[in-house]
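Ubiquinone biosynthesis O-methyltransferase: structure, please.
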Amino acid sequence: MSDATDTVTRKASGGQTIRPEEAAHFGALAKEWWDPKGSSAMLHKLNPVRLGFLREAVDRHWSGDIRHRRPLVGKSVLDVGCGAGLLCEPLSRMGGAVTGVDAAPENIAAAALHAKGGALDIRYIAGELAEQDLGQFDLVTSMEVLEHVADKRAFVGELAARLSPGGLMVLSTPNRTQASRLLLVGAAEAVGMVPRGTHHWEDFATPEELRELLAAAGLAMGEPQGIAFSPAKGLHLSSDLALNYIVTARRAG
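Here you go.
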């Protein structure tokens, strides 16, 4: 599956969440996704932090052995807003049967090419999540995507619809605080840590807002954990939610 993008049966839906300008922005960066010193350098630094949280959440949710190198064997995984596969590839190496969906065809092409080079069997699909007849998955992830969609309620609803009963969802997104306005939008873009135009502060969601969105979709949100930065530690998991946070969600009840 990794040598080409999939053709997937489409279903009619009015829940369009893709912003064309956002897809174009990230699609233009596709060729640099896998360059740790390129325009996606911040994501390369962020990825190990997200994976640390995710691995612990997976072990806790399925009562797994923390020594097991492939805790997702036998599990289906969906990563939405997958870019060029920075998260999909480690999830595949953890044993998951991984599907990645992204709004930008350029990203999907780069993801498929990179997965092929690593002999990883990952299914990649370009387009609107609501238009894909994908079924349900044991693990659904969507990292740094919520802030880029046009309709957050519709998007979270689509994510929830893809989660199997007993499944686990993991989401990360910037918090809408004065600290994130100053550092993630102002400073980070000014010094080139992220490309200009990547973030729009008014589209960030607070943990309380995300909890409400998840509840409306029938999901219960776990306790959020911050992703903070310090000169000594770099990016790291923290109790400080001011910049960015990561959460789990499960079906309520």
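Notes: The longest strand covers residues 163-174.
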